[in-house]
Design goal:
Layout (H helix, E strand, L loop, with lengths): L1 H25 L9 H11 L9 H21 L4 H18 L7 H11 L4 H23 L15 H24 L7 H11 L9 H25 L4 H19 L5 H7 L12 H33 L4
Helix pairs in contact: 1-2, 1-6, 1-10, 2-6, 2-11, 3-4, 3-5, 3-6, 4-5, 4-7, 5-8, 7-12, 8-11, 8-12, 9-10, 9-11, 9-12, 10-11
């Protein structure tokens, strides 16, 4: 029974990723593919305990609002993309903070359409529908006793959190400048920005497991590209098959490493919406971008630890 409870969510995660890709292929609309869906499925289904402190309703509202803002920025804001991406990060971080949750994948939902110039409401609909399917699946598993129920505790937006958000958005914005100016956007793939925020959030233990986190993201990039190239581009199999294989590979790695790191799921699905001529450089740019964001996360976390130690030393002793 224990093995079944562990395997079923993984199988459902693969089916959701493959189903989304199949729908995009059948309807000839790649804007249906929202890579972060695989990440949400890993965090909400595959992980033994939900990866984020959020309720189902707040999760759905936050990610839908972020997707809506992202498309709105493309449609109505005429700034250059080098300014628009930091603005999208700020808006998405604000959505997460206002929702009183830790649901950071909403950042990707906002940044991705800006990065790709997405104007279609199909993207927003896909985000809302696919996320709803994942949450419905989670609800059913809980009712069947196959998954532990998540308990949500609202996150207080105090001074410390606001200061952290400023540091996170400033650091991410600065890192994005050169890739945006050179148009090498995979260095700053939205899931990498989410990973950076995840690594630097309060009480995160990811910095202590940076090598594993970096390994999972690089493996995800390679598995996604190899699956698409070998199974779809060469063997002629449907894109959904490649997506299923890529998702399966990263899930096996996640279970082996015992690090349920949702951004790697998004990276494993991202190769299915990129141009064919970009596939070769994709893993290399993702690897380089991951190292930069990981270094920034280490620096931010180290600075926070130093500040806390200083405060502890200076605190009056009773």
């Amino acid at each position: 029974m224990t093995k079944f409870k562990k395997t079923l969510p993984a199988v459902l995660t693969i089916l959701l990723a493959a189903g989304m890709t199949a729908a995009a292929e059948l309807l000839h609309d790649k804007e249906i593919i929202f890579p972060e869906i695989t990440a949400i499925a890993i965090g909400a289904l595959a992980a033994p305990k939900q990866s984020w402190n959020t309720s189902r309703l707040r999760l759905l509202l936050t990610i839908t609002a972020a997707a809506l803002i992202g498309v709105g920025l493309v449609l109505f804001v005429t700034l250059a993309i080098v300014f628009k991406i930091p603005l999208a990060i700020i808006c998405a971080a604000a959505c997460v903070t206002v929702s009183k949750t830790e649901f950071l994948p909403a950042i990707s939902a906002c940044v991705l359409p800006v990065l790709l110039g997405t104007k279609s409401p199909v993207y927003i609909a896909s985000v809302a529908v696919m996320t709803s399917l994942i949450l419905l699946t989670q609800f059913i598993l809980e009712k069947l006793g196959l998954r532990e129920k998540n308990v949500f505790t609202p996150v207080t937006a105090d001074r410390q959190l606001f200061l952290l958000r400023i540091k996170q958005t400033a650091a991410a914005g600065i890192i994005c400048v050169i890739p945006l100016l050179t148009k090498e956007i995979f260095f700053i793939a939205p899931p990498l920005i989410v990973a950076f925020f995840e690594m630097t959030k309060p009480k995160s233990k990811l910095v202590e497991r940076l090598p594993h986190a970096v390994f999972l993201i690089i493996l995800a990039a390679v598995s996604g590209v190899v699956s698409r190239f070998v199974l779809t581009e060469k063997a002629g199999l449907p894109l959904a098959v490649s997506a299923a294989v890529s998702c399966a590979v990263i899930l096996i790695a996640v279970y082996r490493v015992k690090l349920y790191f949702p951004p790697c799921g998004a990276i494993a699905t991202l190769p299915f919406i990129i141009p064919e001529d970009a596939m070769l450089k994709f893993p290399f740019e993702i690897a380089a971008g991951t190292l930069v964001f990981a270094a920034a996360a280490f620096a931010v976390s180290r600075e926070r630890r130093i500040v806390l130690r200083v405060k502890k030393i200076l605190r009056p002793q009773n």
